[in-house]
Amino acid sequence: MARIPYADTAQPALQSLAQRIRHERDGLPNLYRMLLNSPPVAQGWLAYLTAIRQQSSLPAALRELLILRVAVLNEADYEFAQHLPIALKAGCSPAQIADVRSGGADHLDAAAAAAMAYCDEMTRAIRVGEATFARLRACFDERSIVEITATIAAYNMVSRFLEALHIDHD
């Protein structure tokens, strides 16, 4: 059960933003119902996560594998449950998802394995070592590295928010 109440989206001041979220997210997930307790935060969050999920040049499958890995590392079940169907739709295989869950790389190509290692180090240690970064750099250009880093950072933010406030599964 959530630690604080979800926003009352029937409030006139929230209706426009709630409708925008419904349109962009095909509904109003509990995450956004909680964020709407602070409309400026909800609006900024929506813009940032829309850029990460819908405007970056990363292949959708790689993006979703990264998001799922962050969820696993942070024990963010809500985040994992929300993104699992998206990952499958993006073309991630059950074997790749099993790798993400276990921390393995048996079913990942070299680039995805490098990105997962980067994700692990960035999430667990925050500072990424030179060897891990060199492995990532060998597979990706500057734009992709920025987008991978921003995706990992964004979903670490998401998982911490979800878990701190005990957001309920939809």
Structure description:
The protein is an all-alpha fold and 170 residues long. Helix content is 69%, strand content 0%. It has helices spanning 12-25, 30-35, 39-54, 60-73, 77-89, 94-102, 110-124, 130-137, 142-164. The termini are close together.
Keywords:
170 residues; mainly alpha; elongated
Tell me the distance between the termini.
12 Å
Count of distinct strands: 0
Helix share, percent: 55-70%
Look at the structure and give the mean pLDDT.
Answer: 97
Explain briefly what this protein structure is.
By secondary structure, the protein is mainly alpha-helical. 69% of the residues lie in helices and 0% in strands.
Task: List strands and helices in order, with pairings.
Layout: H1 12-25, H2 30-35, H3 39-54, H4 60-73, H5 77-89, H6 94-102, H7 110-124, H8 130-137, H9 142-164
